[in-house]
């Protein structure tokens, strides 16, 4: 099978944002403009393309990490969904692991919010090239320059401002494109779906020339020859300027910043242009590292001719296709019918079907190549983070890190039938989500589930009920082992057992905090009144 697009026309991107910054709206507009979406609906109507799961729509948060393929300017853009809620940073992390570039979205009123900061740090860790989209420019109080300043100061980004807003709030009509030195104005009659180019408005001419000069200076610094020519008085033309910005972005030296209002359909098309112009293709990214089975470090090139290697980054139950394993193919080619090796587990798996997910269709395909993100069906025992590869060239790709759960609850099925269904439900949910753990209380024999936060566990329990018809009583959340007290794990374990024995649904929350080194732990009874006296003042480690 020939590839539909050469590798340099691939963009595997994520859109990262604090909850409510407008990620769902923006994604939906992208899918609309790229021609793959059905209709433009508002989030609260529940038609947003990426929000597949019922409960996501109810809660207005995106918790899955599926990928959607669309096309822009003859480029193949795979959008990997990244969740915005703090309980799901682990999901953000795993999606960052498989994408090549990201668009960080900000609310122009709120600026840099806590979750945008967390995601930014994670993207730093994985060295993901980024651009920023300052959304909600139509809102009262929208402050583009304030947001840019926050991005610089709080996130330490070297921002390259590529656009200036033409007015803000209700008057926001367009942007000045500093690269082209033109204004882009959206037509009100088509609710912003169409736009035209115009001269830079006189009121903005001076500001635009200052910002353009700054942009050119930042850009030429990305290349010695360009700097020299610039010093001799030669300005880069539009194509050269774009190439320099692209170089700086991929090298993590520049972060292009654009603005708009996804909700009012302003700014999304230029943002897609910028994804194509500035974010990396799989070829711009380093070879993916791994270890061979003998423990020797090894790597794979992004190349169709290399042996197949891919990383499973999401397992999810699709209402139409059953269990799907989303895989990023790093090298080689994988086809339907192939026997592949799950090198992490040391087992072979068969690929029975392969799907490409579009906004509203699932395309049945025969094979996938380096750079692709596809959903595989038929894998029996592959979980998130596993490496799939050619059995003749085994390797395990860089591992994803899954933190220990921070919170636990006891779940007690209501009937025997619920009990049986729960066992299956928990097994499947744990396969989908490595940050979710299932265990048994040593003393009481009850099932204990652990996760990244209360909302995380709430969603798990909700999914058990909806998807597997399990009715269960849920105990009060308890703080699970924290990484900070790992060295004191034994003490914590003993105490946890003792506390557990106090009663199955005791209304207590414990905070384990290490105090002075060697002095043991301090315990706080967050609810009060229920802790036996001997726990109240801590125990020696
Ligand atoms: P997410 O949580 O990041 O996915 O954010 P949503 O896309 O669900 O948006 C959160 C809210 O902000 C919704 O009510 C949207 O209609 C609204 N919203 C999104 N983009 C804009 C925008 O550009 N301007 C305004 N005024 N509201 C927006």
Write a concise keyword list for the protein shown above:
about 550 residues, alpha+beta, 8-stranded antiparallel beta sheet, 7-stranded mixed beta sheet, globular, disordered C terminus, binds guanosine-5'-diphosphate, cytoplasm, translation elongation factor activity, Elongation factor G, GTPase activity, GTP-binding
Low-confidence stretches: 36-65, 482-541
Strand runs, count: 31
Number of helical regions: 13
Cα distance spanning the termini: 63 Å
Roughly how many Å is the radius of gyration? Answer: 25 Å
Structural class: alpha+beta
Largest sheet: 8 strands, antiparallel
Globular, elongated, flat, extended or rod-shaped: what is the shape?
globular
Could you give the order of strands across the largest sheet? 18-17-23-14-15-22-19-20
% residues in beta strands: 25-35%
Helix content percent band: 25-40%
Bound molecules: guanosine-5'-diphosphate
Mean pLDDT: 82
């Amino acid at each position: 099978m020939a590839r539909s697009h050469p590798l340099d026309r691939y963009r595997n991107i994520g859109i990262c944002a604090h909850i409510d910054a407008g990620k769902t709206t923006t994604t939906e507009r992208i899918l609309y403009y790229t021609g793959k979406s059905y209709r433009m609906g508002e989030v609260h109507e529940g038609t947003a393309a990426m929000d597949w799961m019922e409960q996501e729509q109810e809660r207005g948060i995106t918790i899955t990490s599926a990928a959607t393929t669309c096309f822009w300017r003859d480029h193949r853009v795979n959008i990997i969904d990244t969740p915005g809620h703090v309980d799901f940073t682990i999901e953000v992390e795993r999606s960052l692991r498989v994408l090549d570039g990201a668009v960080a979205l900000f609310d122009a009123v709120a600026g840099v919010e806590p979750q945008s900061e967390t995601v930014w740090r994670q993207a730093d860790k994985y060295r993901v090239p980024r651009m920023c989209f300052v959304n909600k420019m139509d809102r009262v109080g929208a402050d583009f320059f304030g947001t840019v300043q926050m991005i610089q100061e709080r996130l330490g980004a070297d921002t390259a401002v590529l656009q200036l807003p033409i007015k803000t709030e209700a008057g926001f009509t367009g942007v000045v494109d500093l690269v082209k030195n033109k204004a882009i104005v959206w037509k009100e009659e088509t609710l912003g779906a169409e736009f035209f180019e115009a001269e830079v408005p006189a009121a903005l001419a001076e500001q635009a020339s200052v910002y353009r000069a700054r942009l050119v200076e930042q850009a030429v610094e990305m290349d010695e020859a360009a700097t020299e020519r610039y010093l001799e008085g030669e300005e880069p033309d539009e194509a050269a300027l774009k190439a320099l910005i692209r170089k700086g972005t991929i090298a993590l030296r520049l972060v292009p910043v654009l603005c708009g209002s996804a909700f009012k359909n302003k700014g999304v098309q230029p943002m897609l242009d910028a994804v194509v112009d500035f974010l990396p293709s799989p070829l711009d990214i380093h070879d993916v590292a791994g270890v061979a089975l003998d423990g020797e470090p090894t790597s794979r090139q992004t190349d169709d001719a290399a042996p197949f290697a891919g990383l499973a980054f999401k397992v999810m139950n699709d209402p139409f296709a059953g269990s799907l394993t989303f895989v990023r193919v790093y090298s080689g080619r994988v086809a339907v019918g192939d026997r592949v090796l799950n090198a992490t587990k040391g087992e072979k798996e068969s690929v029975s079907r392969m799907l490409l997910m579009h906004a509203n269709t699932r395309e049945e395909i025969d094979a996938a190549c380096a750079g692709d993100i596809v959903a595989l069906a038929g894998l029996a025992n592959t979980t998130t983070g596993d490496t799939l590869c050619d059995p003749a060239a085994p390797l395990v790709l860089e591992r994803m890190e899954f933190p220990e759960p921070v919170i636990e609850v006891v779940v007690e099925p209501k009937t025997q039938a619920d009990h049986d269904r729960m066992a299956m439900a928990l097994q499947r949910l744990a396969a989908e989500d490595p940050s979710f753990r299932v265990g048994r209380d040593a003393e009481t024999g009850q099932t204990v589930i652990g996760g990244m936060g209360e909302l995380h566990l709430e969603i798990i329990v909700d999914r058990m009920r909806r998807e597997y018809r399990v009715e269960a009583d849920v105990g009060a959340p308890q703080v699970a082992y924290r990484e900070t007290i790992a060295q004191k794990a034994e003490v914590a374990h003993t105490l946890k057992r003792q506390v557990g024995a106090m009663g199955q649904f005791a209304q207590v929350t414990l905070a384990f905090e290490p105090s002075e080194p060697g002095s043991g732990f301090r315990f706080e009874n967050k609810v009060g009144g229920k802790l036996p006296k001997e726990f109240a003042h801590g125990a020696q480690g």
